[in-house]
Write a structure and sequence with these properties.
There is one protein chain. It is built from 13 helices and 4 strands. The protein is α/β, with parallel strands linked by helices. The chain has a single domain, classed as Rossmann fold. Strands 3-2-1-4 form a 4-stranded parallel sheet, with helices on both faces. The N and C termini lie far apart (54 Å). 37% of the residues are buried.
């Protein structure tokens, strides 16, 4: 059966509106990274709420200022989404310097600074303007644990959490987004040359085949299940103490 994208978009837009009504919020803010996920989230949010703002938040990597910024601005222009930019590079450099004085920082610690700073910026704007923060994480990333805990995973609502990467591309084609968004290699833009699939060691197509049809090569399935298990803590609320009766 063919998928009714028009109906799904209508239902997702109504979901966003209901979340805004329940929260008594005046608008939405989201991170406009120039990637596939943020493009779809921004479009859906703007359909639901005219007072939607996309924040472009470069944080040191050259692509943040060049191709990613251009792609983010092009999507925003096509769908009439208000954009603002906040450069987080200086903040990142300072916190890395300060933390480096009290501990030896690991590579994992360093690459996760940018997503957490972006989360902070989003919530500062949201709190100052009575907005909700829209999440941009998808089902494929969630299964693999390919996101930053308390960084890009932090949000007030997520309208694409049920969609795999391949499904997101299908929605974007239906919405006729700029070709650059469809053709660029998925990347969190954490550093120059970084790609999602390169870091994970498996393609999104393989992940989506596993999630949607339970098929795939044995080697990929082993890797995916290993990553899913290792990142289980990211998908849970903090462990809390419960006194014994």
């Amino acid at each position: 059966m063919m998928r009714d994208y028009g109906l799904e978009i209508k239902n997702r837009v109504e979901f966003i509106r209901s979340v805004l009504r329940d929260a008594g919020a005046d608008g939405i803010v989201y991170g406009n990274s120039g990637g596939k996920d943020s493009a779809l989230v921004g479009i859906l949010c703007k359909m639901a709420c005219a007072n939607t703002v996309g924040l472009i938040m470069p944080c040191g990597a050259k692509r943040n200022y060049l191709s990613d910024r251009i792609d983010a601005e092009n999507v925003a222009q096509q769908f009439a989404i208000t954009t603002r930019m906040i450069d987080l590079a200086a903040v990142r450099n300072e916190i890395v310097r300060a933390a480096g004085e009290i501990t030896k920082l690991t590579e994992a610690a360093l690459v996760n600074v940018a997503p957490r700073l972006r989360m902070t910026a989003l919530y500062m704007v949201a709190a100052s303007e009575n907005r909700l923060v829209a999440g941009t994480g998808n089902r494929s990333e969630a299964y693999m644990g390919y996101f930053t805990k308390w960084g890009d995973s932090a949000c007030d609502f997520n309208v694409i959490a049920d969609l795999t990467v391949s499904e997101i591309y299908d929605f974007l084609r239906y919405l006729r987004v700029p070709e650059n968004i469809l053709n660029k290699a998925p990347s969190a833009g954490l550093y120059d040359g970084q790609t999602d699939e390169g870091e994970m060691g498996v393609t999104y197509q393989s992940i989506d085949n596993f999630l949607l049809t339970n098929t795939g090569h044995a080697r990929d399935r082993i890797l995916m299940e290993k990553m899913h298990t290792a990142t289980a803590h990211k998908r849970k609320m903090p462990i809390t103490y419960c006194p014994r009766a």
